[in-house]
Amino acid sequence: MNDTVISERLKIPAAINRLDTVLDFVRTSANRAGFSPRRITDLVLAVEEAVGNICRYAYPGGNGEIVIFCGNDSEGAFSIEIADGGVPFDLLSVEKPVFEGSLSRRKTGGLGIYLIRHMVDEVRYRREGQRNIITLVMCDRAERKGRSPDPRSGSGGKHPCDAHNPSGAGL
Amino acid sequence: MDTEKVGDVRIVRLQGRLGEVSAPQFEERMKAFIAQGETRFVVHMEELEYISSAGLRSILSTAKDLKELKGALYLSGLTGAVKEVFDISHFSDIFKIYGSVSEALEAIGDNE
Fold this sequence. Notes:
heterodimer; A: alpha+beta; Heat Shock Protein 90; 5-stranded antiparallel sheet; 26% helix; globular; disordered C terminus; B: alpha/beta; Transcription Regulator spoIIAA; 5-stranded mixed sheet; 4 helices; 5 strands
């Protein structure tokens, strides 16, 4: 039912004032791929965090671009690749934030990446030539199921959708 | 965002997304209210689709400013992705959160 192959690409300057264009693009692609409104919200939030980071930190003192690719992988999972040509940065190396402390002592470093890992089913990073490439993978299109309470736990090398869809059918 | 004043409490209703673009605008607006001497706020989030880390930072920064002034920032109407982000980031532990604006107003009134 939802197995239409989708692949769309957007190339845009890495600037916060272009973020809405990116989010509209992701929202439209995910909607077409059959995601529920709530899952689209999860995905759009994750993309906002990832693209916001690139806009702020990838091109210090200069201009650069972001290329975004939305599509289904061979297993039927929807994935979004976000590529930039900026300084190397592996978001998976960022530690989980510390949540202890009162209001006055609360810090917010690392929070955005923590939210990305929570909102999508898998986050991958690779450095390819001069580019950082982040891949966000989404399996469940209706509601999130079987989510680990700790977004840092990995899929142990299996396809991230196996845990959500053991029979491999229905995607 | 829409705002109204009930007694000495400023009610701020947020819509759409509180993220990279809107969070700095929210923070600036709140600073302007505070500069005018307002120190008691209810921020209502029922119509917010989501809040990003930038949104959380703007809420935290405003709350810290208000704490120094012995003011109050109460939150209400957190649902869906907004509630989830507050829960997983443990922001729920450090804010006073109510179901509705009227419950928040009642609580802020009790805490004179």
